[in-house]
Amino acid sequence: MYLTWLDSNSWLLEIGNQRILIDPWLVGSLTFSNLDWLFKGSKSQERPIPENIDLILLSQGLEDHAHPPTLKQLDHQIQVVASPNAAKVVQELDYTSVTSLAHGESFTLNNQVEITAFPGSPIGPTLVENGYLLKELASGLTLYYEPHGYHSPQVKQVAPVDVIITPIVDLALPLLGPIIKGTNSALEVAKSLQPQVMLPTAAGGDVTFEGLLMKLLQAAGSAEEFRALLEKNNLKTQVIDPTPGDRFELCLEEHKTLPISG
Q1: Mind telling me which PANTHER family this protein's record contains (predicted)?
Q2: What is the reported pLDDT for 121?
Q3: What b/e readout covers 225-246, taking b as 16+ CB neighbours within 10 angstroms?
């Protein structure tokens, strides 16, 4: 299994001989509803569009997960698996193969990787976006991705999970509360799923953020503090703090199939 962090929530995952691009923001700036004064993210360097992508996986329909300028540049023939809200974004861009996954539904990519949708981040009073469990069918290795730290109790049913990508730092707005649930939420999911490796997401990377929202956001936590929490709770999970743009291999202990008796 290989991973490349492409800043913010964007990842390139290589699993089961498949190349999966997760929540890509690769070109241009990041704004919400074109309100630069409220929030704007700018990259110090644009990431090249990865080649030979087998699937685009979108967890949410908001611009920091389904980034319109990036999606416009990607090949519209690439398969897309998305939350129902994100599926609308790519369908409006005329992508030709879009699978909308409701919570509990699964999709199998080229008989190599099974992707199952779980309840993820709440957006407003009624909408709940997706988290995903990806399983390499040949080895049984699994990866769980939820970019805002909202972990459904249903995820416990798939324990143990080998790799978790989720925030480990809290981001909150005064009076409104957490936008991103980091430290405590990440610790609880680590206890539940007993991962071999955890990787933080939703951090900036090589990105500069500005606007009114950035003046109000309150951040708490760090990778070092989270490692100490894991140790305090007798968890052997390794925390990897990736460098943006660097491809790295996760050396995981594969699941051993027990012999069938009788």
Answers
A1: METALLO-HYDROLASE/OXIDOREDUCTASE SUPERFAMILY PROTEIN (PTHR36142), METALLO-HYDROLASE_OXIDOREDUCTASE SUPERFAMILY PROTEIN (PTHR36142:SF2)
A2: 93
A3: ebbebbeeeebebebeebebee
